[in-house]
């Protein structure tokens, strides 16, 4: 008789263990499905408008990235070169460059480094507005929106990389950009496997935060 309770306890423990393993397995599959779907969205985003053929926007917004020795990194230069191409094509007549101070020893903000690059490429300094405080994509677009409102600008073309475009579009929509227009460039210098994987995590974080902003 004494062995019966022990067997029952063992059976209950075994049942709980099986239930826990099922929960872990289901969570793992759900996590993989979530990451896979986001990865697909990230890798298949190619912008949401033909900005060259569309009505001129009030401004372009170039989202910041890291500086190297106070100059745009090769990846950031790709964004700036696309912005210059669109500027010369007449997509917009002003440009906001947005990004704060890096933690990598930079002595100027991303915005200042970007402005110096654009001026060096022949863009008039008077056509460039710097936003030197943002430390995230959300802040890039939030603070740029405030600069637009101060100047009476209503429309913008957001310029970034393809892997970063979908999340940028989603954030812009949440912040009230209307219409949301995003121009993207592919990269020949970035390690895209790293950046796309990191973007899955960043996109997930944004979607969790989105209801509270």
TrEMBL record:
<protein>
    <submittedName>
        <fullName>YdcF family protein</fullName>
    </submittedName>
</protein>
<dbReference type="InterPro" id="IPR051599">
    <property type="entry name" value="Cell_Envelope_Assoc"/>
</dbReference>
<feature type="domain" description="DUF218">
    <location>
        <begin position="60"/>
        <end position="199"/>
    </location>
</feature>
<keyword id="KW-0812">Transmembrane</keyword>
<feature type="transmembrane region" description="Helical">
    <location>
        <begin position="20"/>
        <end position="42"/>
    </location>
</feature>
<keyword id="KW-0472">Membrane</keyword>
<keyword id="KW-1133">Transmembrane helix</keyword>
<dbReference type="InterPro" id="IPR003848">
    <property type="entry name" value="DUF218"/>
</dbReference>
<dbReference type="Pfam" id="PF02698">
    <property type="entry name" value="DUF218"/>
</dbReference>
<dbReference type="InterPro" id="IPR014729">
    <property type="entry name" value="Rossmann-like_a/b/a_fold"/>
</dbReference>
